[in-house]
Amino acid sequence: MTRIKRGYIARRRRTKLRLFASSFQGAHSRLMRERTMTQQRIRALVSARRDKKKRKRDFRRLWITRINAVIHETEVFYSYNRFIHNLYKKQLLLNRKILAQIALLNRSCLYTISNEIKK
Amino acid sequence: LLLSSDSPLSLELSAKNNMASPSATLSLCSAFSAHCSVAPPRSLSKPSLSLARPAIGFLSTSAASTSRPAFPAAPKFAESAVVAEPETTDIEAVVVSEDKPKREEIFAVVMVGGRQYIVFPGRYLYTQRLKDANVDDQIVLNKVLLVGTKTHTYIGKPVVTNATVHAVVENQGLNDKVVVFKYKPKKKYRRNIGHRQPNTRIRITGITGYEEYPASPNVAV
């Protein structure tokens, strides 16, 4: 076999690692020979995967909180749970994301919706 | 001449419109909701799309049209209503919006690909890949859950009957790559997988067909 030098194979891999970990804090973006950067990259990717699933839950919680806040202002003794119950009784299909956006920006529209479903 | 405000922070348009603060913020929200694609599919019925290929295409309005009355009394001609902005000497309103036609103040909530979006005429939207659509196809979205105008809201139970949202397919592409990294510690198991989800970019041209539906007047805030 002819002799093969490995050229830039290792350097390319390490450059990619360095770029990925470039925004990490302290030694986590500097130490390549002590394998800190590799380990932090793995932890970062694992967190990303786990949090992609968590993100759906987090946003739904946020939307519910926002809708609840606006619905409480409509009238006394009215809350998110009653609002959603009325929503389902009248067979509306609007989801919480849209309701939260409407609550933020077009609040009169949300009041219209809640009056409509209370009838 | 494609006329639309692509950037989500199109607040320069609002500098000219007096009734634009809800629409400017609504446009922010549409951009947010378009990119925030996390709604779990909770639809009770499957979304249906029909491809319409009319001989006369809905062309987006060109800037060089003559001026017409601003808020359309007949929303059927929505796409062709064009208003030339009056020349002002405001320094803040320097930006390009002199010849941009006034968009009608209407929005709809439409369900596409199992997800719901707030939709404005003239803006674009990324949805799940529509399999049979080619570029520059006219598309009709039937599942309209809510139509809102300045004065009235048409709340669909569950759908606003006969309301349709017309759109044009602009691009069939892929989302940005996400890295799915599977790892089990101490068990020598790691898999590095990249994933690009196919998507379709559609530009909304108009919202029609909601007029006969019972409307609820907007409550004063």
TrEMBL record, chain A:
Protein location: Plastid, Chloroplast
Domain of life the protein comes from: Eukaryota
Any one GO CC term of the record: ribosome
Taxonomic path: Eukaryota, Viridiplantae, Streptophyta, Embryophyta, Tracheophyta
Keyword terms of this UniProt record: Plastid, Ribonucleoprotein, Ribosomal protein, RNA-binding, rRNA-binding
Functional summary from the UniProt entry: Binds directly to 23S ribosomal RNA and is necessary for the in vitro assembly process of the 50S ribosomal subunit. It is not involved in the protein synthesizing functions of that subunit.
Single GO molecular function: rRNA binding
One annotated GO biological process: translation
Protein family membership: Belongs to the bacterial ribosomal protein bL20 family.
Pfam families in alphabetical order: Ribosomal_L20
SUPFAM superfamilies: Ribosomal protein L20 (SSF74731)
Keyword Ribosomal protein: yes
Annotated protein name in UniProt: 50S ribosomal protein L20
From TrEMBL, chain B:
SUPFAM superfamilies: L21p-like
InterPro entries: bL21-like, bL21-like_sf, Ribosomal_bL21, Ribosomal_bL21_CS
GO biological process: translation
Keyword RNA-binding attributed: yes
Keywords, comma-separated and alphabetical: Ribonucleoprotein, Ribosomal protein, RNA-binding, rRNA-binding
Annotated GO MF terms: rRNA binding; structural constituent of ribosome
Domain of life: Eukaryota
GO cellular component: cytoplasm; ribonucleoprotein complex; ribosome
Keyword Ligase: no
Similarity remark: Belongs to the bacterial ribosomal protein bL21 family.
Protein name as annotated: 50S ribosomal protein L21, chloroplastic
